[in-house]
Amino acid sequence: ITTTIKGTIPTWINGSFLRNGPGKFEFGEDRYTHWFDGMAMMHRFHICEGNVTYSSRFLRSDSYVLNSERNRIVVSEFGTLAMPDPCKNIFARFFSRFTIPKATDNAGVNFVKYKGDYYVSTETNYMRRVDPQSLETKEKVDWSQYVAVNAATAHPHYDRDGATYNMGNSYGTSGFFYNIIRVPPPEENAAKEDSEDLNGAQVICSIQASESRKPSYFHSFVMSENYIVFVEQPIKLDLLKFMLYRIAGKSFHKVMTWDPTYETIFHLVNRHTGKSEVKYCAAPMFTLHQINAFEDSGFLVMDMCCGDDGEVIADYTLENLRRDTGEEMDKVNAFRLLQQKYFSYNSVSVCIIVQTKTNPGEVYMTHEELHDDELLQYGGLEFPQINYDQYNGRPYRYFYACGFGHVFGDSLLKMDVHTKELKVWRYPGFFPSEPVFVASPRATEEDDGVVLSVIITPREEKSTFLLVLDAKTFTELGRAEVPVNIPYGTHGVFNGMEQNST
Ligand SMILES: [Fe+2]
């Protein structure tokens, strides 16, 4: 679809802004109940010489294909349990409840890169390779065919040599482990086949869960020049319940519980040696997205979005979200309660963990809030992004995020972590997606470039736009209006490697 440009899109931006997210919640009479469950929809804003075109496609995952063929929900997702086939007789139905459901390949969380190829990913053992230009669905890739993991996150890290790092779980008779995986850079001069390739992937470190039957949920991790920091948080997975959850008729998110009787444990792993020797403990906290980590004068500094109430993850049910768009105004009080919980989540939005060894084996940890009270009027922040290519793992000054004054982001924020100064883009009725930074070609400063965000406008029919902000001033340079409704998505990347394509 062609778009209508207002203002100016800088002509140096060449490439595609790729975004992923849930896009379909109904099959026949069946409805998904949790926002994370919607069928993956891929979006591409192709930017070239000041013009923008938009395209989208549903991921043809097995889940999507099966659900479409049967016109009902066949595959269980995170918050929605697929019911047994109603055509089976009562005995078959009874036994079908004893089978452990297959993991979903509905990879609706992020676009990620391994060995030069694009994949869409979620938090199971499956990813899907995709064509970043046509958005065509390619092979299903099973992590467990390459390394001994049962799942991997949707937030890998990339080092400057081209290797990709991720984390995944494994469990067996010796316990539950959090594994750090390294996928090597693409081989130089090797003839590149058009197929999946995770060959050479290795587990470089296995961290044993502090309690085997109750491992922690994790969504991402951080990587500095020499370390990987993994946060073992008090959001616990009950493995016994996980095995039994179909019998109990519970969906997956109900086997995750926030248990603040546990401490938060920070595992530091030297990513060159794979060694993790010390556990650093802190008060219970909940985190989905970390921002950056870097080493400075013998300290490791880690910035992250976190909060003290991990109950929020259950709140992204579609029932709650529909309340938020005003469909059920009579339930506004219930929504306010929900919103208060978000404020408590965001009250310690960002912290720095500073560690100092006082005695051998003993570590004192503290944190600093990176914001002042000004942030509270924007409801705290999530979806943090930085100038990743140049500053990930290194001392940095700026990050970009969505302010969450609403259940969904309703502002864009730029934070200066040196001065705690905030710059804000916010207009009523506009809901921005995760802001992604793109550096200008001859950038000399960290914030020399633009920030891209997709803005949905649910109060208006068929009007969504790609917003281009000057990253330095955080003011609008231009927008590309698309005459369609686009669902609120999750994460995305800018693919600047396709200058000559259309
Ligand atoms: Fe995420």
TrEMBL record:
InterPro entries linked: Carotenoid_Oase (IPR004294)
Protein name: Beta-carotene 15, 15-dioxygenase 2, like
Cofactor note: Binds 1 Fe(2+) ion per subunit.
GO BP term, example: retinal metabolic process
MF-aspect GO terms: beta-carotene 15,15'-dioxygenase activity; carotenoid dioxygenase activity; metal ion binding
Family of the protein in this entry: Belongs to the carotenoid oxygenase family.
Binding site for Fe cation: H155, H219, H289, H491
Biological classification of the source: Eukaryota, Metazoa, Chordata, Craniata, Vertebrata
Keyword Metal-binding: yes
GO cellular component, one term: mitochondrion
Alphabetical keyword list: Iron, Metal-binding
Cofactor: Fe(2+)
Superkingdom of origin organism: Eukaryota
